[in-house]
Amino acid sequence: MNPGQWIAHLIIRGYQLTLSAFVGRQCRHWPSCSAYTDEAIQAHGLWAGGWMGFARICRCTPLGTSGIDLVPEALPPASAWYKPWTYGRWRGVNAPPAFACEAVEPDGDGASPPQGTPSGQP
Predict the structure, then answer these.
(1) Are 29 and 68 in contact (CB under 8 A)?
(2) I need a surface site. Which of 4, 65, 66, 114 has the fewest CB within 10 A?
(3) What is the tens place of the pLDDT at every residue in 11-42?
(4) Of 60, 64, 62, 40, which is closest to residue 51 (Cα–Cα)?
């Protein structure tokens, strides 16, 4: 962690422990905007992570997005230091993939053997 990231972490942590209680914990996303910004700065550096956090805070409005929004693992392909707005996601969320569960249908009478085994063998 370089000095810029360390200072940003201390400022964000200070906000979380002091001002956040007075402002109210009403973030529309999980993780909160301050936690998201801190994680983005730690993962992508002060410049890129700071812009990601700024874009997230701009989306966290009454008419903005809500829900699970995770820090992306990689920077957007078109991002560059001289185009800082390209680091942030200005619409939508980065939600994890939906958990899918296959339903298992019962055999009915429970007497039929599993598929692939002959009827007479266990």
Answers:
(1) yes
(2) 114
(3) 999 998 888 878 776 788 888 889 999 999 99
(4) 40
Q: Per the structure block, which two tokens stand in for 67?
A: 């829900």
Q: In which element (H, E) is residue 68 found?
A: strand 67-68
Contact 115, 89 (CB under 8 A): no
CA distance 83 to 41: 17
Residue at 46 is within a domain: yes
Residue 66 covered by a domain: yes
Question: Quick check: is 112 in a domain?
Answer: no
Query: pTM for this structure?
Result: 0.72
Sign of CA dihedral 12, 16, 21, 25: positive
33 is in which domain, residue-wise?
3-86
User: Can you read off the two tokens belonging to residue 12?
Assistant: 């964000």
Total domains present in the chain? 1
Q: How far apart are CA 16 and CA 13, in angstroms?
A: 5
* Nearest in space to 49 (alpha carbons), one of 63, 58, 62, 36: 36
Whose CA is closest to 51, among 103, 11, 10, 86? 86
